[in-house]
Amino acid sequence: IMIPDGKPYPVPDFNGLVAITTRPAPNTIQAVARREDGTNAGEGRYVVSADGTSLSATTAGFDTQLRRFETRTEWDRVD
Asked: Where are the alpha helices (DSSP H) in 17-64?
């Protein structure tokens, strides 16, 4: 569950991780998964276009070798 209030919430089944979600703009949600030591484990930014016809998601994290990765996905609304 993403609650965009900027408060840390425990991530179920992942001890030591919290999720922090904010809404930096009316059409944007940003989420960060943070470890107990304050470092980021992953993050995502979700933006709905001004006309409401598309959603862009950019997510990042670390693989099992601790190499950072980033993915971008675009969705178009189909009526």
From this structure: none
Longest dimension (CA), the chain: 45
Q: Which of 74, 65, 61 is nearest to 32 (CA)?
A: 61
Full-model pTM = 0.85
Give residue for tokens 């933006």. 47
Long-range own/partner contacts, residues 7-12 (CB < 8 A, 24 or more apart): 8/34
| Average pLDDT of span 49-57 | 96
d(CA 40, CA 53) in angstroms, rounded, equals 31
How far apart are the C-alpha atoms of 14 and 32, rounded to whole Å? 14
